[in-house]
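pls ignore typos typing on phone
zinc ion + seq
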Amino acid sequence: MGYFMVCKEFIKDIPRFLDDSFTYKELKEFLAHMDTCEECKEELSIQILVTEGVARLEEGNAFDLQNEIEKRLEEAKSRQRMHEFLVRLILIMLGVAVFALLIFCFVYFGFDI
Ligand SMILES: [Zn+2]
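k done
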């Protein structure tokens, strides 16, 4: 039942994925579910086909569905990875800053802190 709810949420969120209107947290959850659920991945493929495919056909361009889906997912995943990298970088820098401050206090005030 919980599983079913997740799939329902996923399918409801597909248009937002296509619009790129997810937060990073939402995107992470979305991609994580897609990786574990073939049915939702299938549903997403269909929706990409419908939205992108129609636009491409109107432009008169050839449309490679598999390629298009992989491109979209790859873009989303690399954005997600970049976001996680930046968050980690900020945490490391904060850690270094706190450490430097402690060292400074230690040196400046001696052992009395
Ligand atoms: Zn699912």
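The pocket of zinc ion is lined by residues 6-7, 10, 33, 37, 39-40 (CB under 6 Å). The mean pLDDT is 87. more later
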